[in-house]
Amino acid sequence: MTSSQRAKIDFPSRIGVWWASETWAMPDAQEVARDIEQLGYGSLFLPEVVGKECFTQSAAFLAATEKLVVGTGIANLHVRLPSAAETGARTLTALYPGRFAFGLGVSHGPLVERGFGGTYAKPLATMRTYLEKMAAIPPQIEPGVGRPPVLLAALGPKMIELSGTHADGAHPYLVTPAQSRVTREILGPDKWIVSEQAVAIGGDDADQLKRAHAHLDVYSGLPNYRNSWLRQGFDESDLVRGGSERLARGVVGMGSPEQAAEMVTAHLDAGADHVVIQVLGNSPTDDPRPGLRELARVLKLS
């Protein structure tokens, strides 16, 4: 039940989608978004790495749909000034009230320093300062709209705490349902938790495991995720490139659509308000709709 203290996010259902459409022409990607909405999913969250700019994509997806919530998962704070982030998010909130969720993160040292030529230092302090500068934008920018709902890419306890004190909740990524429970315990009842859950369905077990390892390949080399998995109960033997089998099965829903759906609903049972499903294909930008249709049937979304 949404508390009156919460920022306004009008999810039509408790289960949504996480999808990277970066190599898709936007008219085709908009068609995918319309199909996601028709299947009964409540949101579409999209990344921002080195491809398309996430606010422009968000505007396009919001324009193409009627009730679907669109979220950034995650907007990179190193890409834009705090003033641009705040005012852009306010404009989307003004145009589509209750339908935009601004997910924000500090990204990763290797990407920021080697990919952007920036400086990656003291992530917690960087995020706190950035959020304070966003909050300082005067209310006459999009008057009467109020502030957009902000969710932080929060994995460690201090960033989770910050997502409660300086933002409207958290968007955990590559976490177990048990970690969604930890996040809820830290945040209490009045902040949003939107957990991501990757799934590999279709094909046999070996094929699903192959897709899971391929998905984890890049993440397993990033300190933020490695530290997160250690906190979640995995150990150094699980942190091989692509992850161990134990790690892959721990953070990716595999098996039948019914078995994968159980992992999705486990996050809800653990305290997440909303779960976004990332369907793993043979490449990160495969069409997610075949898998989403299977899961929508099992989850009884429409």
Automatic annotation (TrEMBL):
Alphabetized UniProt keyword annotations: Oxidoreductase
Gene Ontology terms for molecular function: oxidoreductase activity
Pfam families per UniProt: Bac_luciferase
UniProt cross-references to CDD domains, sorted A to Z: Tetrahydromethanopterin_reductase
Tagged with keyword Nuclease: no
Keyword Oxidoreductase in annotation: yes
Enzyme superclass (EC): oxidoreductase
Enzyme Commission number: 1.-.-.-
Domain Luciferase-like as annotated: residue spans: 22-271
SUPFAM superfamilies, per database record: Bacterial luciferase-like (SSF51679)
Cited NCBIfam families: F420_MSMEG_4141 (TIGR03620)
Protein name, entry field: LLM class F420-dependent oxidoreductase
Taxonomic source organism: [Mycobacterium] wendilense
Upper taxonomic lineage: Bacteria, Bacillati, Actinomycetota, Actinomycetes, Mycobacteriales
